[in-house]
Fold this sequence. Notes:
The chain is of the alpha+beta class. The chain is 12% helix and 25% strand. It has helices at residues 3-16, 101-104, 197-203, 231-245, 254-261, 375-383, 415-424, and strands at 26-31, 36-39, 47-57, 68-73, 79-83, 94-100, 114-120, 131-133, 155-156, 176-179, 188-191, 249-250, 323-327, 333-336, 351-353, 365-366, 370-371, 396-400, 405-409, 433-436, 449-454, 459-461, 468-477, 488-493, 499-503, 514-520, 528-535, 552-555. The strands form seven sheets. Strands 1, 2, 3 and 6 form a four-stranded antiparallel β-sheet that branches. Strands 5-4-7-8 form a four-stranded antiparallel β-sheet, with no helix packed on it.
Amino acid sequence: MSCRVWASVAIVVGLIGSAVHADDVARLYRWREPASAIKNPGPGESQVYLLVAEAGWTPSASRSQGAYTTKLLLPDGTQITHPLSPYEGPGSGLVTFQVPAEAVRNRLPSEVTLKAWLADSATGEPVSRALRATIADFPNSAGEPPPVDRRPFGWGTALSGASRILPTPSPDGTKYARVPASGDAAGFFLATTEMTNGQVAAAVPSYDPLAGRSDEFALEAPGQPALGLSPDAAGNVLAALGTATGLPFRLPTEAEWLRAARAGAATPFWWGDQASYPSGANFLGPEPALEEDSTAPSVATPGQAATFEANPWGFLHTFGNIAEWATSPSGEFVRLGGHFRIEPAVPLPSQVVADSSQFGDDPYVGLRPAFDLDANDAAPILAKRFADDPALKDVNIAFDPDSATATLNGTVPDTATRRKADDLLRGVWWLAAVVDHLTTPAVSPSSLARLGAQKGDAKTTAPLGRVMTAIPVGVTWSNPLPVTGSDWWVNIYGPDGRHEAHRLAWSRPGQSETFEAVVDRAKFPRGPVSVALSLGKAAETPTTPGVVSNLATLQLP
């Protein structure tokens, strides 16, 4: 609808006196920043908080500054109205709401809930949906307002479907896919490509891609598949990978290799029964999609697509390119898959090599690493990530290898620790996802401080002849705390029901791990006393509404 039509509709609606429907005129998106306190220049409240909302207006909005007002529903149910601030309204992306300080101070954080919206000045009808404000939108005495973290806990996406490639490569840049368990066959992880010359040289510096060769083919580029590897040499590479990662790398078995190479198909090749498939295998004859008789890179050049198709499970070059090592049921080494100098055939030749120091008929053989990682193996590896944080020592970690997902259960002290557990696992490359079922202890909304034992020596003074003893008390504060400027009281109780109170000396209580309970010795000459904190006013008894801490017992000197 054009702006002119919107304007015409608005005029007609105004003439017939119909109410404006919510969201027809404005929308409040979010609070731009935490509220700021200012002195109220007008009558009434001595101080107000300004909450600035990001807003959007429809073309139908009146351009008159006085056409709209701000409305607030305060925590006590009171509704207040203010005109729009100068230079705000239609055409501006901001709307400021004025919150009386006394409406939010001296309240428990859970009670600081407001609703803000825009209304038609003439009818009082809403012209926007309400935007909610909580304690997170006000400065509180625990320090800076905690950031509003609306992210879900956990991360990633569990592996599923046919192609189950881990989203993060291994430290040497190899991508791995999960071949899930099926029937009696256990699942395992397998590299999606052959290891490259560069990767093998990094793992075993003595590796030479020219060793054992007399051909003139160009096969030595860092991104091309490593070749000329005997089973012993392949074992050295796998051992180096295991040392670097802590994982049990190995060669796949013959059955595992064929299952992954065929992507679970019952046919000789993943594409079907015919040996020839030019776009999917680098064989001799009509096969090569390469300009020269050579091997295709195991990793594509950045910005360039892979030369040959991957199979449906995401594995590249399973047939052709270079032969690959696997192990037979009897423990011998088997060359599988053919290579770039072999004519496509059914079946492809496979060769058993009994001498692990040899590579068989030709040097065009390399490896595609596999590793096993089940729930029992993975859990202690993941638990080491939490070892340096006592708050995470009781977290239970369950690992599902087929989905490459870690699930966290247990209780942690707070949401920040819960978030830390998620983040500590982000560096684990063989994880695809973390499911966070951690919980934090339920805290009574009326408990804002946990008082502990005396922290340091008591000090007795006698100002104007009045003997006073100041006892430092240990305290752990909750977060968030009430809005800054709230009134905190220290209440002293004697065993006979006697009571006295004084204001907390700290203007920002959450910034200190202790506070002083000051005892008038004329009222409490001896014996133990109890102390508790209250909010808004003194509390005659420990059960008076407003007490926001436990009782701590102090011994008078």
